[in-house]
Amino acid sequence: MAVSKVSFYGHVRQYTNIKSEIDANIQKVLMSGEYVTGPMLKQFEAELAKYAGTKYAIGVANGTDALWLAMMALGLKAGDEIITNANTFFATAEAGWITGCKVVLVDCDEKTRCIDIAKLKAAITPKTKAIVPVHLYGQCAPMREIRKIADEHKLFVIEDNAQAIDAHGDNFKIGELSDAVCTSFIIQKNLGTFGDSGAVYTNNPDIDAKIRKLRNHGSAKRNCHSFGFNSRLDDLHAGILSAKLKHITAWTDTRRAKAKRYTEGLKGVDFITLPTELPGYRHVYHLYVVETKDTADRDKLLKHLNDHGVDAKTHYSIAIHQQEGYPWGKDAEIRGTLANVEKNAASCVSLPLYPEITDEEVDYTIQMVKSYKK
Ligand SMILES: *Cc1c(COP(=O)(O)O)cnc(C)c1O
User: N or C: which end of the chain has fewer CB atoms below 10 A?
Assistant: First the structure.
């Protein structure tokens, strides 16, 4: 049948493909009688740490909690500055504000849209305590440079890895060059459950112990509490994620193949620029984001695609500092210009991409991009 509609997500297709494995784990949890910090959570945490190559992995309620729990475990507090790029999902900055920190926003790189290294360097002050690089759209930020800067200034590095599970850089792994890695498992991420979940992984036993307590009402031992929260990853989600984790590498390979199909099919389309894949990096294409060269084309291209059944979206058309009411009395500062961030916000279009998308759907989307007339 000829394609006339392309969905942005393939959640139900993915569930259908591995239904028996997911259902078996759900049944296992239901019949175990243990649903919160039970054996399935322990199993998934062990599998995740092994997969990530870190000593510890701690399941938490969502990716935002993962970020602020990591910040809190590192001792970040009011008056401390964290630096991130202004073109990210809102939660990166939000986590800083939850912790009471000052969120310093800097520009992104012209091509990769990850944090700009020169702008990052220029934004450091004696109050800076942490860099929070975002592996945006599924490609790692330049962690070696970031680690070097962090070492020079004695800063923590917290990777926002919500979009880049299974990615790696040119000879560096996620988690290798940072204090903590924070990940989200909300359904639309590359590894996602049917709801919310997240995790922190780290090689630091102190961070592991602190987050384990913080996520569980400050309790490491029954009836004994210090200040904390409730931010646990429950066992049903852990079971779903455990079933899905076995497929992540194959899913990423498929995402990369579909991305390649887009890139080949869209080569030479003169009104857009295509994603930049850095040599040696494994870009996991959480999102396949093209940018219109003329910002005046973006909304029109988006409408053209939507009108023709392609559920294209934008990530993110309103940068953090452009949100209404920013910064809502929170401690925030822009350092340097945000010219690249603003260009990205005004020109980005995300095309549908997931392991379950068919080649025909990718080809239809390519055709619809090509049929756009200014
Ligand atoms: C999704 C996302 C988060 C937040 O994750 P939640 O699980 O939705 O709280 C944080 N940072 C980035 C870059 C994200 O894409």
Answer: N
CA-based max dimension of the chain? 66
Ligand 1 centroid to Cα of residue 286, in Å, is 12
Residues with a catalytic annotation lie at 189
* Substitution site in 65, 163, 187 for ligand 1 pocket (most atoms within 8 Å of beta carbon): 163
Last residue of a domain, one of 213, 245, 277: 245
5 in any annotated domain: no
What distance in angstroms lies between residue 102's CA and the mean position of ligand 1's atoms?
Answer: 19
Torsion 267-110-172-160 (CA) sign: negative
For the chain, the domain total comes to 2
Per-residue pLDDT of the chain (374 residues; tens, 9 = 90+): 799 999 999 999 999 999 999 999 999 999 999 999 999 999 999 999 999 999 999 999 999 999 999 999 999 999 999 999 999 999 999 999 999 999 999 999 999 999 999 999 999 999 999 999 999 999 999 999 999 999 999 999 999 999 999 999 999 999 999 999 999 999 999 999 999 999 999 999 999 999 999 999 999 999 999 999 999 999 999 999 999 999 999 999 999 999 999 999 999 999 999 999 999 999 999 999 999 999 999 999 999 999 999 999 999 999 999 999 999 999 999 999 999 999 999 999 999 999 999 999 999 999 999 999 98
- Same domain, yes or no, for 262 and 238? no
The domain boundary residue, chosen from 245, 270, 302: 245
Q: Does the residue 3 lie in any domain?
A: no
- 102-106 and 128-131 as β-strands: parallel, antiparallel, unpaired? unpaired
Q: Nearest 5 degrees, angle CA 61-CA 101-CA 208?
A: 40
Q: Which residue, judged by its Cα, is nearest atom 10 of ligand 1?
A: 91
Query: What is the domain-level CATH number for residue 114?
Result: 3.40.640.10
Return the ligand 1 atom nearest residue 198 CA. 7
Side chain identity at 326, as an amino acid letter? Y
pTM over 0.90: yes
Evaluate: CB of 92 within 6 angstroms of ligand 1: yes
Contact criterion met (CB below 8 Å) for 314 and 287: no
**Same domain, yes or no: 39 and 174:** yes
How far away, in angstroms, is 182 Cα from ligand 1 center?
A: 9
Q: Which of 64, 197, 241 to mutate to test the pocket of ligand 1 (most atoms within 8 A of CB)?
A: 64
